[in-house]
């Protein structure tokens, strides 16, 4: 939309007419002072040398004045409002990519899928809702690594999460090292509200740092950890000529995950299916609400240069018109 920063400049529009209407003629005093009776015979000759402005010159002069007043109002183009990133939370997701995450005990869109696929779908919606938070992504297996550092660019985090592949970080699970890496990254980020969401389907089987020791380090740095244990409790497996019901989450160390959450002031959640996983992320949204206060920026483009430039060109044309051949609307001298 177009906005005028100085609309009061429109009051200058009638200024030329007021000068013409009420100001005394500039030559009246000179004629009274220099009048010589003996030179009256030359009046006709002098009158013939006066050039009156033509209609086209007058119209151009009026147009130039209108353009100058328009430029004086300082027209601006206001762009669409842009929400600036606010200083919300530093939120890191730590996702288990060990071999057990390929277990197909989740349902998504009526189809049976592996745990990682269900996680990507649900966590993706969670990331999209975290407007104003800096979000990062850690993937861990035998060792953890930072897939995405803390950033306001949630789309990049989503893209790299969707590109994560099973076994990319090894087949074992290093929960303690993943927490330790998150502590280091979040501490380096310097945020005040620091949250880690750790999702795994097993127990700590690799790494140098014990999970509970890592939790103590996190608590010391005021890092809150929400742990999520993923995996169904019951699953039917075909065995030659019969089906057997097994527990695909037998290796899940819920006791340790619960202790990690308690030490850091977070909570432990259990996701046995896609619906429960969605409810967990919705609960985290309530426990760690997005900061709603935000700054709005509207980009401004100055437009006054266009009418000012047009007025300049029009003024040049007014000056050049007397030098041009006779045109319609101009009076001959």
UniProtKB/TrEMBL annotation:
User: What InterPro entries does the record tag this protein with?
Assistant: UPF0353/GerABKA_families (IPR050768), VWF_A (IPR002035), vWFA_dom_sf (IPR036465)
Q: Which PANTHER family is this protein grouped with? A: SPORE GERMINATION PROTEIN (PTHR22550), VWFA DOMAIN-CONTAINING PROTEIN (PTHR22550:SF18)
* PROSITE patterns the UniProt entry points to: VWFA (PS50234)
Name of the protein this chain belongs to = BatB protein
- Where is the chain membrane-spanning? 303-324
Q: Which domain of life is it from?
A: Bacteria
The record's keywords, sorted A to Z, are:
Membrane, Transmembrane, Transmembrane helix
